[in-house]
Design a protein that fits this description.
By secondary structure, this protein is an alpha+beta fold. The protein has eight helices and nine strands. Helix 6 links the parallel strand 7 and strand 8.
Length: 219
């Protein structure tokens, strides 16, 4: 039986052509769209909807250009409508997809919450697959966790594209700043989606978010 992780590894290896730039890129760097029954462009975040896929680089500026230049209609060779708010919709759907997976991970016992618990988790026999850091979290806490992971020779992905508010909503807790996800398909999917969401939330170099840094000792 093919596992979810195996399917995502396969998706990461497949390549598609972006209809906006013409570049061939791995699926993990792209967003799939389909044309709905009414001729509307529909984001297919999970790449499961029926119909011919129209792929666009996971980048807000590229998607905006695709909408402005009518790239969807040209690629579909049909009269289709791409809503002006498509960029914001894709970002929102990616966030919701990640929040859903974080909630699943928590209910399955695959998520560790809070700075101290994450730090202890780095020393366990099965180390976390990914660290989840609120985008506005203080750099000091991130640095301490990264140093602890490096001291143990761990190579752990960092997911830092969601805000504390978004993390708290997903996990039903207040002031979530630090979390960690144990290895498994959900961790791989979160890493996959976070890489795409970054393209819609890129910040100027040297910035770490739009809100003041939060206390490290979150709940």
């Amino acid at each position: 039986m093919t596992t979810l992780a195996a399917k995502e590894d396969e998706a990461a290896m497949r390549e598609r052509r972006c209809i906006a730039t013409g570049e061939v890129r791995p699926e993990e760097k792209l967003i799939r769209f389909v044309v709905g029954p009414e001729g509307d462009v529909v984001p297919d975040i999970a790449a499961k909807l029926p119909g011919r896929g129209l792929w666009v680089t996971a980048d807000a500026a590229v998607l905006a250009r695709a909408v402005a230049k009518n790239a969807f209609a040209k690629a579909a060779q049909a009269s289709v409508r791409a809503a002006p708010g498509l960029v914001a919709l894709v970002e929102r759907l990616l966030v919701q997809h990640m929040q859903s997976d974080l909630g699943l991970a928590r209910r399955a016992g695959l998520l560790v919450l809070g700075f101290d618990n994450v730090l202890r988790g780095l020393g366990e026999k099965v180390a976390p697959r990914a660290l989840v850091e609120a985008s506005e979290g203080a750099e000091d806490g991130r640095r301490k966790l990264a140093s602890a992971a490096a001291a143990r020779g761990l190579r752990i992905e960092t997911i830092d594209c969601l805000s504390s508010t978004e993390l708290s909503l997903a996990l039903g807790r207040e002031n979530v700043i630090h979390a960690a996800v144990k290895p498994g398909p959900l961790a791989e999917r979160l890493i996959f989606d976070s890489a795409r969401l970054v393209g819609f939330r890129m910040r100027p170099a040297g910035t770490s978010g739009s809100s003041p840094a939060r206390n490290e000792r979150d709940v």
